[in-house]
Design a protein that fits this description.
about 400 residues, alpha/beta, FAD/NAD(P)-binding domain, seven-stranded mixed β-sheet, globular
């Protein structure tokens, strides 16, 4: 039986563990965090990724955990309502698309993996080629040989750094930073996405139905002195500088930062690589082809990538190099289509001037009364619909590895 080490217990890593087990491999998942990460924002699952959930038998479970958001409400610095729109349209969702909290999705995937071995509070420190495998050193002081190693460890992937070189060679910043954290429930409005656009920066906060807390979102131009993604104190200071003098509820949201248990702040970046594998090591999800939060497709890329990688390895029947090559051939057009969404979407997420904000909110107010409204909406949502379905998934039966 083929032993596969997966670094990262997020969406891509946990889904990959499920599919590898389904195909007869023996996956082990190593995760730096002491337990599953509950933080994070709401994420969208659409297109080919929904088919992946169908084939896992998890579609109904995931749909039951839909956030149930109703409205997006745009507000001025003084709290005045500028415009409202349907939450699904705001998120580019239609039909069977699902919006779910990232933590809920990972818990569903984790529960489905059954007896897969998970090593929490540990991480990879070294990778060395071995006879028909990879020798792996762990931060816990142990070492073990695996037949294959897969990096599913996100934008700042350790596996990518050890196997392919420094992040600077592959990260493509999009010029903005994003921050996400949990804030008191009273700062949000149940099932409503409150958005405060200001020139060059955007703040949002929402609370899903029955949630005990709310989630806040900050978007702003990347500072020249951006803190490291692990420097929490520096991140709080950077947010305070970026949003100094902002109106609406921003002072209250900033005041809640010291108590936030899950502050995430990082540059919005994409990962662009000429290859996602070397020898018996490969990458999946954000580690190999992050599209950035601006794409709205990171979760779907992780789910689809996990499915395609596991299927390719199963079809290769003991030839991982051929399997990795097949995985890349099938995934690259899909990745390219979804990465292209990011810059286009970002232009609408952070507006550069007060005039642009006035025009955007005017159009949102007028849209319900405009002739041809449905046609206009279809034109707006078409790029993400097309990208989400830009792959034909292989249908590979379960087999012994």
């Amino acid at each position: 039986m083929t032993d596969v080490l997966i670094s990262g217990a997020g969406v891509a890593g946990t889904a990959l563990a499920w599919w590898l087990r389904h195909h007869g491999f023996r996956p082990t998942v190593v995760e730096r965090a002491p337990a599953l990460r509950d933080g994070g924002y709401k994420v969208d699952v659409r297109g080919a990724a929904l088919t992946v959930l169908d084939r896992m038998g998890l579609r109904e479970q995931v749909s039951r955990r839909d956030t149930g958001m109703r409205l997006a409400r745009f507000v001025a610095a003084d709290g005045r309502q500028l415009a409202t729109m349907d939450a699904a349209l705001f998120g580019g969702r239609e039909g069977d698309d699902v919006e779910i909290m990232r933590g809920d999705l990972v818990r569903i995937l984790m529960a489905a993996t059954g007896d897969v071995d998970h090593r929490f509070a540990d991480s990879i420190t070294a990778l060395r080629p071995a006879a028909d495998g990879v020798e792996v050193d762990f931060a816990s002081g142990t070492s073990r040989r695996f037949d294959l190693v897969i990096g599913a460890d996100g934008l700042h992937s350790t596996v990518r750094r050890l196997a392919f070189g420094p992040a600077s060679a592959y990260l493509r910043p999009l010029g903005h930073h994003i921050a996400i954290c949990t804030v008191p429930a009273g700062l949000g409005e149940e099932r409503v996405e409150l958005m405060h656009p200001a020139p060059g920066r955007t703040v949002g906060v929402y609370r899903t139905a029955g949630a005990p807390d709310a989630r806040a979102l900050f978007l702003f131009p990347s500072p020249a002195d951006a803190p490291d993604h692990r420097d929490v104190a520096g991140q709080r200071a950077a947010l305070a500088r970026a949003f100094a003098g902002a109106g609406w509820r921003v002072p209250e949201l900033l005041a809640a930062l010291p108590d936030a248990p899950d502050l995430y702040l990082d540059a919005m970046s994409q990962v662009r690589m000429d290859r996602w594998s070397t020898g018996r090591i490969a990458l999946v999800g954000d580690a190999g082809y992050a599209a950035s939060p601006a794409s709205g497709q990171g979760t779907s890329l992780g789910l689809v990538g996990a499915y395609v990688l596991a299927a390719a390895l199963a079809e290769a029947a003991g030839d991982p190099v051929a399997g990795f090559a097949a995985y890349e051939r099938r995934m690259r057009p899909f990745v390219a289509a979804n990465q292209q969404l990011a810059e286009r979407n970002l232009k609408g997420m952070v507006l550069g001037s007060a005039a642009q904000i006035r025009f955007q909110t005017l159009m949102l107010r007028l849209m319900p009364r405009l002739p041809g409204r449905e046609r206009m909406i279809r034109r707006v949502t078409e790029p993400i619909r097309t990208a989400a379905a830009a792959i034909t998934l292989p249908d590979v039966p379960a087999r012994a590895a």
